[in-house]
Specification:
By secondary structure, this protein is α/β, with parallel strands linked by helices. 30% of the residues lie in helices and 19% in strands.
Length: 365
């Protein structure tokens, strides 16, 4: 059996359990989008209208129902004639994307019924922490097998994705034994489309500020993953938002910054090792960990943000100073930090080419 036959078998299995249309027989995944008028909704539509294996069945927005998608997402003019709708025909789709604000996904599911055979990919933070639900945490670099088999997926946060990708190889190797210092700057789109005092151009332009010092909500999921990966002999990573700084264990001391650019996250992480390792040893650790990753790549050279903007790539670089390792990691917050990773997860869930719809060129100049 060749790779195409295997792909089709997985996709056919994923699409089983509902009426099969002629489009389905050709291997098309039918998609519904909730919260389609926001930044993530617009970026998701931009990706999916160019995805070779996808048909968008509906893009839901109550306030924009009947309007063309490009009336809101003006960059899509000439790309699609899709209209927003107030309808939510879940029986006609294979997967639905939740592009809601945080806290709204769980509330939505309490008021609406989605057929059991329809997969859900939630971009909010409602189900990222393990609990009384069946959502799989969708970081492909750590949870690929679970993603491929899951029905419901919680897409990781943007800061959480960037920070974790900088730390995963060290965590897996048991080298995280001291507190970790993290500084990361994000673009204004990370705050969402709704205007606020810190997103106005006149405030953001030529400006720089810190926010949520040591209290950013993404620390929960970062801590969860690092503890899953660490060998039992190494210290536990403390979830300081729940446990405070009085507990024994490693803390991730995260300082987020607002940048005066639109998109992207640039992160530096300082890790102290118990013993010295050469720059070559540390680099080899990262290269080996990400050797099979579709979008995460180790760079031998120092990085700049434009290398990842408008792509689903994550780039990582390390430098060693005695017992200290400085890791630089970066992503596009709307793509690898949100909808790009969501589409990557959809591809894995349906047995598609993982890179389908995501072959994007960086805005490097």
């Amino acid at each position: 059996m060749n790779k195409q036959d295997i792909k089709q078998d997985i996709l056919s299995s994923s699409l089983s359990g509902r009426n099969v249309s002629s489009a389905d027989k050709e291997g098309v995944v039918k998609v519904g989008i909730l919260g389609a008028a926001g930044y993530t909704g617009g970026e998701l539509i931009r990706l999916l209208i160019n995805h070779p294996d996808v048909e968008i069945v509906f893009a839901n927005s109550e306030s924009n129902a009947g309007n063309k998608v490009y009336d809101v997402h003006e960059g899509l003019m000439g790309e699609t004639e899709l209209e927003f709708t107030s309808e939510m025909p879940f029986d006609k789709v294979d997967v639905v994307f939740f592009c809601f604000g945080h806290g709204k996904s769980e509330a939505f599911l309490k008021e609406h019924s989605i057929p059991a055979n329809v997969k859900i990919i939630d971009l909010a933070q409602d189900f990222r922490i393990k609990g009384n639900h069946d959502y799989v945490y969708g970081l492909p670099e750590t949870h690929r097998e679970e993603i491929a088999q899951c029905q419901h997926l919680a897409n990781p946060g943007c800061f959480a994705t960037c920070i974790q990708l900088g730390l995963l190889p060290l965590a897996k190797a048991g080298l995280l034994t001291h507190d970790i210092a993290v500084n990361a700057i994000t673009g204004s789109t990370g705050a969402g489309q709704k205007p606020g005092t810190t997103t106005h151009f006149s405030w953001r332009n030529n400006n720089f500020s810190v926010y949520k010092l040591f209290t950013h909500q993404h620390l929960h999921e970062i801590t969860q993953t690092l503890n899953e990966l660490r060998p039992e002999a190494t210290p536990r990573v403390v979830d300081t938002l729940d446990e405070g700084y009085d507990k024994d264990g490693i803390t991730v001391d995260f300082i987020p910054y607002r940048g005066d650019f639109a998109r992207g996250i640039f992160c530096t992480e300082v890790i102290t090792l118990d013993s010295t390792k050469s720059a070559e040893e540390v680099a080899a650790l990262y290269k080996d960990y990400y050797k099979d990753a579709a979008f995460t790549h180790y760079s031998d050279k120092a990085l700049d943000l434009k290398q990842v903007v408008n792509t689903n790539k994550a780039l990582v670089h390390t430098e060693v100073f005695g017992r200290k390792v400085v890791v630089t990691s970066m992503i596009d917050n709307l793509l690898k930090g949100a909808v790009g990773q969501a589409v990557q997860n959809m591809n894995i869930m349906f047995g598609l080419d993982e890179t389908a719809g995501l072959r994007l060129k960086a805005s490097a100049f």
